[in-house]
């Protein structure tokens, strides 16, 4: 049996194009995209009056739910695209067990910082559920450049999302080695 592929789309939080790229790759491959923020946003609907904050209760529930969904799909033999910020210290422990279940490929999004800020502001203004679910970036105490990328020994590709995708989407072959 050939293992399914787990495409991990990562990068710093806020406006880096991770979710958009994850959904585009999933459509191109023909598989589901599982996005951490979308799981948390779904939880907000069942928690009226929720107030986001660093390490809030929904954030704590989202992480194990995210990895449980990925494991379930991979054990069923499903190729899947997983999207989140994927800071190494927080996310590597959840990803390491999945290496036995799938061929893992990491895509790390990069973008011009001004573009990221503009995208993030636009997203928050356009989606009230997103705004209700997530702590504003400045409230987390994170600084630009504080991102610690995943350090798994698997094929990794940098994709600049500033103006489209570089490399272009058709050139990102997640089934092969990057």
UniProtKB/TrEMBL annotation:
GO terms for molecular function: kinase activity. SUPFAM superfamilies: P-loop containing nucleoside triphosphate hydrolases. Keywords: Kinase, Transferase. It comes from the Bacteria. InterPro entries: P-loop_NTPase. The keyword Transferase applies. This is Kinase. It comes from Actinopolymorpha pittospori.
């Amino acid at each position: 049996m050939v293992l399914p592929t787990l495409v991990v789309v990562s990068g710093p939080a806020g406006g880096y194009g991770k979710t958009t790229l994850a959904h585009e790759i999933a459509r191109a491959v023909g598989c589901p995209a599982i996005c951490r923020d979308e799981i948390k946003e779904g939880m907000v609907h069942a928690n009226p009056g929720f107030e986001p904050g660093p390490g809030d209760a929904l954030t704590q529930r989202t992480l194990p739910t995210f990895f449980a969904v990925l494991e379930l799909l991979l054990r069923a033999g499903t190729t899947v695209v997983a999207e989140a910020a994927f800071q190494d210290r927080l996310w590597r422990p959840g990803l390491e067990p999945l290496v036995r279940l799938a061929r893992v490929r990491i895509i790390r999004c990069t973008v011009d910082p001004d573009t990221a800020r503009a995208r993030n502001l636009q997203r928050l203004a356009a989606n009230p559920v997103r705004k209700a679910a997530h702590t504003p970036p400045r409230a987390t105490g994170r600084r630009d450049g504080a991102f610690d990328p995943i350090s798994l020994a698997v094929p990794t590709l940098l994709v600049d999302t500033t103006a489209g995708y570089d490399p272009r989407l058709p050139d990102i072959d997640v089934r092969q080695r990057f």
